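Milestone 3.1: sequence recovery, worked example.
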């Protein structure tokens, strides 16, 4: 009987040792992923921290010699009942500087709802140079009955924007959950 118990203990020890080696190997592999990720980023160019730092430095060097007009437009679908508008119609900006503006939304639907803003940038070729760092359009917004509030947009226009771009229009179409359903019918 003791022979089978000793045999079982031996099997358990080997299994425990294998599991311990596996756990240590997994832990070591986790540490090895960081340098492997860096090597992969250097080879492919994706997620390259050096390139990201260079882009960040480019934004930190604004082009104060250029002025671009940014117009803000708010649109509502034909169904629904909202007040939605920009707090300023336009602003003069210098590429490379961070700017903040707000849009105002007021739920007049008579019920609690979720709303989502869908952005559009014109001219289309300027969209690649217009970067929103904070925007109410990133996530659906919850509104209580009759709730009203300003909603922030922070943006920067890349100094590499072509010189022929002198005006950019940022527009939002504001939908609530009932508007989307109603517009599909």
């Amino acid at each position: 009987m003791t022979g089978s118990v000793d045999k079982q203990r031996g099997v358990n020890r080997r299994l425990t040792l294998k599991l311990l080696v596996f756990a240590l190997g997994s832990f070591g592999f986790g540490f090895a992923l960081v340098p492997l990720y860096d090597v992969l980023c250097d080879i492919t160019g994706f997620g390259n921290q050096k390139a990201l730092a260079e882009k960040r430095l480019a934004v930190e060097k604004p082009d104060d010699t250029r002025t671009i007009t940014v117009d803000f437009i708010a649109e509502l679908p034909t169904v629904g009942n909202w007040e939605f508008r920009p707090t300023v119609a336009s602003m003069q900006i210098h590429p490379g500087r961070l700017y903040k503006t707000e849009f105002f939304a007021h739920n007049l639907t008579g019920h609690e709802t979720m709303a989502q803003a869908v952005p559009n940038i014109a001219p289309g070729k300027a969209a690649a140079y217009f970067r929103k760092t904070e925007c109410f359009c990133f996530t659906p917004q919850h509104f209580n009955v009759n709730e009203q509030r300003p909603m922030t947009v922070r943006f920067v226009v890349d100094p590499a924007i072509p010189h022929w771009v002198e005006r950019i229009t940022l527009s939002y179409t504001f939908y609530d959950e009932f508007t989307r359903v109603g517009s599909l019918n």
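The two ends are 78 Å apart (CA to CA). Helices lie at 2-44, 49-60, 177-184.
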